[in-house]
Every structure is written in C-alpha cells, then in structure tokens.
Amino acid sequence: MRAILYMLTSLAVIGLAFWAYRENYATQQALSEADKLREGIRTAHSRLAVLKAEWAYENRPDRLRDLADINFDRLGLLPLHPDQFGQLDQVAYPPPPPLPITDPVDVSTMNGKEVEPL
After folding, report:
1. For an engineered disulfide with 77, which of 7, 33, 57, 68 has Cβ 3.0 to 4.6 Å away?
2. Contact 89, 80 (CB under 8 A)
C-alpha cells in the first residue's frame, strides 16, 4: 500500500512540476508580448509627438498668410474680419416639426347626434 502511495505522490509531483514548467514559459511569453506592446506604444507616442510638432510648424499663421498671398490668383482667399460673422438672431432655424396626434377625436358626431357640415 505504501508503494502505491509513494508512486501516486511522485506522479503528482511530476505532474505539478510539468504544470509549473508550462505556466512559467507561458508567463514569460506573455511578459515578452507585453514588453513588445509597451515598446510599440512608446514608438507611437514619440511619432505622434513628432507629427504634432510638424503640424504646428506647418500651420503657423505667418506661413499660411504667405501661402494665401502667393496663391491668391488660384484660391482667392482673403483674411477674416470680425464684421464678417453674423449675429445669433440672424440664423434661420428650421420650424419645429408638427406634434403627432396620439388621441384623435371624431367631431362628426356630437353627444351621440350627427352634425351637419357647414
């Protein structure tokens, strides 16, 4: 009986060692993938910072003004002035939609009597 108990115990230890070995390698692989993702995120953040800096550089007001002056014949762009904007009361809003009729009333009969049209 003792031999069977020793054999089952040793099989359990071998099984647990195999499971721990597999879990260790799965964990190492997951950590490696997480590191690769973090590196990709860092790269994307640095690229985004460069793109934002380029966008700010390209959209300088003096540069855009010069480009508008150079291409005035083709584009016809003029600078904006405060008097070019309208007032809020000048905005034509669409009329509100009609309310739906949910409880219609029949007016052809009144108090149980038929009413003649006028």
Report:
1. 68
2. no
Query: How far is it, in rounded angstroms, from Cα 101 to Cα 107?
Result: 15
Cβ atoms of residues 39 and 32 within 8 Å: no
Structure token digits, residue 63: 């540069």
What is the helix (H) or strand (E) element at residue 68, kind and residue range?
helix 61-70
Tens digits of residue pLDDT in 50-85: 999 999 999 999 998 899 889 988 988 888 888 888
Q: Give tens-digit pLDDT for 14-53.
A: 999 999 999 999 999 999 999 999 999 999 999 999 999 9
pTM: 0.49
Sequence-distant (≥ 6) Cβ neighbours of residue 71 within 8 angstroms: 77
